[in-house]
């Protein structure tokens, strides 16, 4: 809890109320835990084909291979941080 308190103090100094700061902490923590969980789940073996014909948009999105887990995490974290920045209280930037 001390680490969370420290983060909340830092966020308060940046102008975020404690409740909003806690939501931010939860969001980033859950993103990280979710990524670790997804990576730990068994995935289809190499060469295992999946019929994507009923899902043309998914098939198009996966052309050239799946999206790297690190890239997915970076994308999601950037989206979160961008949203946090936009929700920041007005202050001199």
UniProtKB/TrEMBL annotation:
SUPFAM superfamilies: Tetracyclin repressor-like, C-terminal domain
UniProt-listed Gene3D superfamilies: Tetracycline Repressor, domain 2 (1.10.357.10)
InterPro entries per the UniProt record, alphabetical: Tet_transcr_reg_TetR-rel_C_sf
Species annotation: Glycomyces albidus
Name listed for the protein in its UniProt record: Uncharacterized protein
Superkingdom assignment: Bacteria
């Amino acid at each position: 809890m001390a680490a969370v308190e420290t983060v909340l103090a830092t966020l308060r100094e940046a102008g975020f109320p404690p409740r909003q700061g806690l939501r931010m902490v939860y969001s980033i923590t859950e993103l990280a835990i979710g990524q670790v969980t997804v990576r730990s789940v068994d995935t289809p073996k190499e060469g295992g084909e999946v019929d994507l014909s009923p899902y043309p948009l998914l098939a198009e999105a996966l052309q050239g291979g799946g999206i790297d887990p690190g890239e997915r995490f970076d994308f999601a974290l950037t989206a979160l941080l961008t949203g946090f920045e936009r929700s920041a209280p007005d202050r001199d930037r």
